[in-house]
User: Fold this.
Amino acid sequence: MRSSGDTAPCRTNSPRASFRNTTTWGSPAGVTSSESGGAVFPNSIVDINTCRSGGGNGGEDMAVCSRLPLQRFLSASSPRLLSCRNVQAESAAPGPLYPPVLPSRSAKSKSAKRRVLLEFYEQLRGAEPREKIRGLTRIQRMKYVVYPQTFAQGADRWYQHFTKTAYLPGLPDKFTSEAEPHQEQEFEDAVLSELRSLVCNALLQENWHMKKGRTFIHGEQKQYVRPFVTNIVSGLVHSLARTNPVLRLSSLDFDPQVNFYWVHGERTIPRGHRSGRVEPQRFQIDDKPHSQIRIPHQLPEFVPLKAEISAEVPVIQLEPDRLPLFRRQYDNNIYIGAKLEDPCCYGHTQFHVVPDKFHRNKLNKKNLPGHIEVFLRANAITSLYAWTGAQAMYQGFWSEQDVSRPFVSQAIITDGQYFSFFCYQLNTLALSSFSTPNNPRKNLCWGTESLRLYERITDGDVIGWDDNVLKLLVQFLLNKPQN
Amino acid sequence: MAKRLIYPIYQLGNPQLRIFRPTFNMTLVRPGKEQPADTVQFRISMEMTKFDVRNYLEKIYSVPVAAVRTRIQYCTNKKRNHLNQRVKRPDYKVAYVQLSQQQTFQFPDIFPEKEKKHEEGSVEEMQEKFMEDERQRQKPDPRRGGVTEWFGL
Assistant:
């Protein structure tokens, strides 16, 4: 409607109004027509302008002009003329003349809910990481609790779907293609033999020299393996601090907590007072690794962020309840093992110990030999996703503000005799976000099968020692950021 | 859990005549909610446990079982009969069995849709034809392209 509010009263009054309505010639665009809205320019300027431009045209116009005082528009710098001059410049680049059409905020509609959500996300964009985490985890609702160590069959495929991770067997090129010159080899051998003796001594101490009583059920790992892993981890870190300077600045923690909370996918609530509504699927991981090493600088990426990887992320159409996965409601925590202010805020390596329930002997007795590797993969994928995701959130990235650089971490899962090595690269946190609907990025996890370190221990001797496993362990610990 | 039968007294050296057949039953059912490919759903006797289910399938049918999960479905006691007495629908136990060695199972379609074809010259066939013709007559003119008679002369 053309500013009916403006012209309507004038229409009844004066010939000025009728003149205004009929004029169409060469006047600046924003002025005579209704677009001025009347509020911008007072009526008199309109008249002046039309009079001025119509000065050469008709006697009819001159009659109108003559009523106006002459001094008003004699001075070239009067405010009315100045504001007329600016009209030309503004109309050359017309900005939005109407406010944007937004859906309501309080209506009972999908667009209203969406608008409220998007406004909340806009608010979060400029906040500090602490406030971002608080804003995203404040509201508690029922969520799926993902256990990294699980009995569920086929859990690694399901967990890959939940975390959008592609699994690549084998380790990245960094660890597989090592071309060392001969001189370094000798130096390496000396260091390696020292570390070998360290590990062997720790092994014999726990399993042979120390007299340990019989444990109650499911106590073997706690009594034999956990102290052994503690000893080798602290021993290796402190001896390799010479070769790898970042380990000197690192923080080695035992029994830390790692928590992560995220949202992925949607579901329609089937029954209840909220049936029919669409709800996001929330997940939470609460992990307790045996130990972790955190460093103040980020590890280098294994593969560039935009690289094309052939491995696919498995997509499972069934709901997570079929895995089986259960839902609970409690505090949504995001924690890397230390609080936000800690200078060592990037992850290096985590060590996990396989509990008694999932030990390979027990699984073989239960006729589940295939579950041994599945369990290790599922454990690695979820623990490392939680750790890297929490690291990224500590830096201020979240699902709407995706990571600008990949977050890299490593994990070693062991049951005392068999070691498995895993590397994880977090390329994206935006698993289902409004700002990036079809996100092409995916997270990557490399992993080995379980490699045996030794065959057995007899009479103070370790039989069947495998050096490759120790070398791989050392290589993992020697990984350092580019500085 | 055998029914009480009278067996002859057993003495050392006698042949073992006693047979103990369990009175357990397992019924394979179609899942109500969609299950993964390796999951089979059974309705089992209330007294059975997960170990019973596993042994039953492995020993009698030699089906490799990876995992068994059970739950009890409570059925309503709210319905009332013509004498206003509450009638209980019996509860039952459901077992979800996951097969090992990457085997899969899809519940078959037991009642497939069959095209009913009457014999030639029978009464039903003539009736069916008559009904078909009636339906044809009731349909609007296809040349109008779905537009109703309201928009016309």
